[in-house]
Amino acid sequence: MLNVILNFSVKLHDIYPQLPSYQQLVQQLRERTPHQGWHFYDHLEERPANRHHPLYLETPLLDVLRGTTTMEEQRDAIRRTVRDALELLQHDDALKTLTDEVRHKASSLTET
User: Fold this and answer.
1) Which of 82, 84, 66 is nearest to 74 (CA)?
2) Which terminus of the chain has a smaller tally of CB atoms within 10 A, N or C?
3) CB 57 within 8 A of CB 4
4) In a domain? residue 73
5) This prediction's pTM
6) How many structural domains comprise the chain?
């Protein structure tokens, strides 16, 4: 499997799950990934929840590499596929909005 995983540091574990931008990103990934060849996993729904790596995008590596024969073709196929995953995360500036909101929230907590 080829995975793209969002990682959050321990100091953010109590911050990001409640943020509107995080909830929006989760909803957007739920809606868009089935149509883009990726499987979406929300690991906050598991018990125990995985707060370090809450969001996974996964696709079969064999499918990505199918039809390639050289290392360069394989590298290019993986790059294209990961780029597609990044586009899913960046759709409607979802990842940027989350990043900005997390930074703002984290900085306001350190100021108090």
Assistant:
1) 66
2) C
3) yes
4) yes
5) 0.87
6) 1
